[in-house]
Amino acid sequence: MVDHDDGKKVNQVVDPGKGYELPLLLFAGFRTLIDRLHAELARQGHPGLRPAHGFAMQAIGVEGATASDIGRRLGVSKQAAGKTVDRLLALGYAERADDPADARRKLVRLTPRGDDALARSAAVFDELRAEWAATLGPARVRDMEAALRTVVPAETTYRLDATSWLGTP
After folding, report:
1. What is the pTM of this model?
2. Is 6 helix (H, G, I), strand (E, B) or coil?
3. Which of 19-23, 71-75, 141-145 has the highest average model confidence (pLDDT)?
4. How far is CA 17 from CA 23, 141, 148, in A?
5. Dihedral, CA atoms, 123, 125, 126, 132, nearest 10 degrees?
6. Which of these, 28, 1, 31, lies nearest to 16 by C-alpha position?
7. What 8-state DSSP symbol labels residue 65?
8. Alpha carbons within 13 A on the beta-carbon side of 67
């Protein structure tokens, strides 16, 4: 596996089959799915969406969330979350609203455009899974999912804070 940056090789795995290859292959599979998702979303009318936006929209959730909640769910600072929220607002995927439970707080909520992007994402992921099943066989994909459910602790299955791995505040 090699990343290309202006023709220069970086992050090159030179000894396949070693223990460190598994996380790289898992990440490459994830990256492949996400890249294909965003190419299709762009084709379907959502060209400005980036992977970070999808994570942020998931963190906003159905009920909405404050910038602090979003930051906590993503594992980033309130300020970093605020920048992402500002971009979602500018793109029309989210809006700010008064919190009905506390007039001092502002909630970020998804707009119909944000809901549409998430619904389209779910449909595209279903299509991509079907492609993997066509290539690998449905039983192998089900086995891979079952194996990952076995080794991934339940409390981390749907964690969104991957950015904290990279040192983001």
Report:
1. 0.81
2. coil
3. 141-145
4. 11, 21, 19
5. 150
6. 1
7. B
8. 18
- C-alpha to C-alpha distance for 89 and 29, rounded to whole angstroms: 30
Beta strand ranges found along the chain (DSSP E)? 3-5, 8-10, 94-99, 102-110
Q: List the structure tokens of 15.
A: 């000894």
Shortest CA distance to 58 belongs to which of 169, 165, 162, 167? 162
CA-nearest of 57, 68, 62, 64 to 100 is 64
Confidence of residue 74 (pLDDT cuts 50, 70, 90): confident
Other Cβ atoms closer than 10 A to 148: 11
The pLDDT confidence band at residue 155, using thresholds 50, 70 and 90, is: confident
Q: How much of the chain is in helix, strand and coil states, percent to nearest 5?
A: 60, 15, 25
31-50 confidence digits (pLDDT tens):
999 999 999 999 999 999 99
Say how far apart CA 56 and CA 114 lie, in whole Å. 11
Over the stretch 77-90, which tens digit does the pLDDT of each residue have? 888 889 999 999 99
Please report the pLDDT score of residue 168 as a whole number: 46
| Helix 51-60 with 78-91: angle, nearest 10 deg | 100
Residues ≥6 apart with Cβ < 8 Å to 138: none
